[in-house]
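Worked Example 4.2. Consider the chain below.
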Amino acid sequence: MKRAALLLFFHISFFTLYFASAQTEVVPFVPGSTLEGVTYYLPRTAFRITVVCEKTTIRPGDFNKYADRYLRLQDVPVEESIQWTLKDIILEPFGKPDPAKVYSIKLKSKTVAPLVGLSHDGILLSINCDAQETFLPELPKPVKGAAPENPRTYMTQEILAAGSTAKMAELCAQEMYDIRDSKNALVRGEADNTPKDGEQLKLMLEQLDKQASVLESLFSGTRQTDTEVFSFFYDPQQESDRDVLFRFSQKFGVVDADNLVGEPVTISLKVMESIPTSVPSEDVTKKRAKMDNGVYYNIPARTKISVAYQGKEYVNMETPMAQFGIVELLSNTLFDKKTTTQVTFFQTTGSTKDVME
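Applying the procedure from the previous section yields the following structure tokens:
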């Protein structure tokens, strides 16, 4: 199965390329600056993939051995474990410089084409006007779950003074039953200190529930759930059908695509339209030959992308992608001194956004 390249580092690499002239003279160039003019990239469309998961840490209680004896609790955890849950997968397209599509606009006295705007990595953004460079939004922040309360805060002096774990467990269980009796008495209005105010009664019942729950965790164990965020880049070069994007394990979370401890998260990418390549006539070929100093741009093709895991579809989107389209040329006559043509381009695809005279 053919697989698209995965970029596992959270940054976009800069490219060092070499541009060969007609005389095969090879000189290194930096995007946006050459001796002959302005060099720019057209983009190909890549994606940042963000995976949002929940990590639940399950810890056994100190009295887990006595859970069945005193509270009739069964199947309580006896050792620490971690459970992962896949919550969301987000695909965000962005433009990445395509090293196969690098061009130069020559500096000439009769043209204004070199007045261009480039992104920080050399992608063409605009001609004769300003264009705002866009960046991927910040990643969602990981969220630390609330830590379980310390049960000793709710232990009586008698429990803390017990001489053995078994005795402490017995006294904790008895304290829980006493709390239950106090709660029932309050609900029935039989307690000596039953408040007349409904709001105060509610607060007292909530406090009793909290005490009982924290003490019970000594037998049943605790669970702490954190939200974790993973991110990597996906740079497709061809269509795909259920390629393994990465794998997910309920025990280990997000793992590499070739790590069989996890179940596959698959991606399918299909080009929805095919852009025909015209066969120009002799006259058109001659005219095009005179446009060599024009500006190249992309005509992207629309694609459909879906991402699924265990039969559930997490992503179903349609988006234009530059690498599945074609490259066309804006005539250099649009940029001579007699015109004030302004052009902006989509940073993600390299296609024309606005053309104004």
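The chain is about 20% helix and 40% strand. The helical segments are 67-71, 157-160, 165-188, 198-220, 282-289. Compare this with Example 4.1 before moving on.
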